[in-house]
Specification:
482 residues, alpha+beta, Immunoglobulin-like, five-stranded antiparallel beta sheet, four-stranded antiparallel beta sheet, 18 helices, 18% strand, elongated, Electron_Trans/Redox, transport, electron transport, transmembrane, 4Fe-4S
């Protein structure tokens, strides 16, 4: 049984942090350099670059079509992703994408715990950016703590003002970039700057600006610990075989200062590699002590690994006192038994990978079989059928045709299942043709007269007069109630 716990303020006080910081529960992480910190900087640059640049990328879809590579077109109820165009009828693909993302997240958790939270989560990325700005202006951890408890001088006021101004600038850029995904980016940028943008655009920018400023600048680790549901799920899906940041207490205990540890080893007495420097706590963006065992708040960012390895290097001790390791290996070291090797391929991960492949394959197949011509119909309900003076019966249908291609199409409608059917289309030209512009959809009124003597299953067919491509929708032809 593994207990996952966290108590920031208590640990802060026990580790000798300033009383005010411990009482407020504020976490002021120290800068650190190392392998995982470099990875995090690379991921941060890639994620922010992708987020801000995507709306500005162009993609030629032909005349009359939006040329923005990634666009959610609310006005025309469709979305564009490079060469892919999604319509409301493609909601199954969106659902599949959400299920796929969930399975990928669970698979990542089975492999390396909350590594998503530590490297790729937007809260982590923007918090790292805000912390970088704070350090550049106010200094590293000790200097920030000293200034925080010191008097409010003119210089200190200027630093605080510049910091918050830059935070707000980043937050505005974040909100503005989000709004660009829903309209033509160059046009919306110009309209936002000149005051000509719609109120909804300013509202979206304001909302994202406020949430980014508050969550990344002020809430920070509180979001990861208390607001996000993912830590709570850790209690249910914690996997002792998954890689997670762990303190190898069998090697690190008993903790002694470096000089006393050397003296103790010289006398042949036990001395752990941990010198109780608390660097692992000082650099932690969540403010936890990884030496106390697994914590549901740990985001597996690896910064404590970098900090501990740097201390071990200075003491000429082996790296890896704090490392990514499966919890079962930590328990094996405690028991003095050989530590099992971490295995990525095991029944749980293979089953999750298989599920991901099945869903991804189904989505790809659905996309491959999707046509660029669609038709739907809804039968009239009241009245469902009308008896004409010549003895025939008329049924009415509300039909919608959609042209999902990038070229104009000319369609004709017909009906299958009624040999003597007479079809008239309200909205067609005198020759019964419907001209659909590229990407257009049109509602039509279809009337069908027939001398059928019984209810029939029918299909309304839309045919392209140029290519011969057809699409059909099943419906019924009914007789009046007797």
């Amino acid at each position: 049984m593994v207990a996952l716990d966290v108590s920031h303020a208590t640990r802060a006080a026990r580790l000798g942090k300033p009383k005010a910081e411990a009482m407020r529960g504020r976490v002021t992480p120290q800068a650190v350099s190392g392998h995982f910190r470099r990875i995090k900087w690379g991921v941060l640059a890639a994620c922010l670059g992708l987020y801000y640049a995507l709306p500005l990328l162009r993609w030629d879809r032909g005349p009359g079509q939006p040329d923005q590579a990634v666009l959610v077109d609310l006005a025309h109820v469709r979305a564009y992703l490079f060469g892919l165009e999604l319509w409301p009828s493609d909601v199954i693909l969106v659902t599949g994408l959400l299920v796929l993302a969930t399975l990928v997240l669970v698979l990542v958790n089975a492999l390396a715990g909350r590594v998503w939270c530590g490297f790729l989560c937007p809260q982590t990325v923007w918090t790292d950016l805000f912390l970088l700005i704070e350090r550049r202006i106010e200094g590293d951890r000790r200097e920030r703590l000293r200034k925080r408890e010191g008097p409010l001088t003119l210089r200190r006021s200027a630093e605080i003002g510049v910091k918050h101004a830059l935070w707000l600038l980043v937050a505005v850029m974040t909100g503005g970039a989000f709004a660009l995904y829903f309209a033509d980016a160059p046009t919306l940028l110009r309209d936002l700057a000149t005051g000509a943008a719609p109120a909804a655009a300013y509202g979206a920018v304001a909302a994202l600006t406020l949430t980014t400023y508050l969550l990344a600048g002020h809430a920070r680790e509180q979001v990861c610990t208390w607001m996000c549901p993912w830590p709570r799920l850790q209690n249910a899906i914690f996997d002792p075989k998954a890689l997670s940041v762990a303190y190898r207490d069998a090697r690190g205990e008993p903790r002694l200062p470096a000089k006393r540890a050397l003296e103790s080893r010289a006398r042949g007495e036990p001395a752990g590699d941990c010198v109780d420097c608390a660097q692992c706590v000082a650099v932690c963006p969540i403010g936890i002590d990884i030496r106390e065992g697994p914590s549901f708040a740990c985001i597996n960012c690896g910064l404590c690994v970098d900090a501990c390895d740097s201390v071990m290097a200075r003491l000429s001790r082996p790296h890896g006192l704090i490392a990514y390791a499966p919890w079962e290996a930590i328990e094996a070291e405690r028991a003095g038994t050989p530590a099992p090797r971490w295995r990525a391929l095991r029944p749980k991960t293979l089953a999750l990978a298989a599920g991901i492949l099945v869903i991804a394959g189904a989505m790809i197949t659905t996309l491959a079989l999707r046509t660029d011509l669609a038709i739907t119909s809804v039968h009239d309900r009241n009245p469902a059928a009308v008896l004409l003076s010549d003895g025939r019966v008329r049924n009415g249908y509300a039909v919608t045709v959609a042209n999902r291609s990038l070229q104009e199409r000319t369609l004709v409608l017909s009906i299958e299942g009624l040999a003597d059917a007479e079809v008239s289309v309200v909205g067609a030209d005198p020759h019964g043709r419907i001209v659909l512009e590229a990407g257009a959809r049109r509602p039509l009124r279809v009337l069908v007269n027939s001398g059928a003597q019984e209810n029939r299953d029918v299909a309304i067919v839309a045919a392209d007069v140029v290519t011969g491509a057809t699409r059909r929708t099943a419906d019924v032809f009914v007789l009046p109630a007797r």
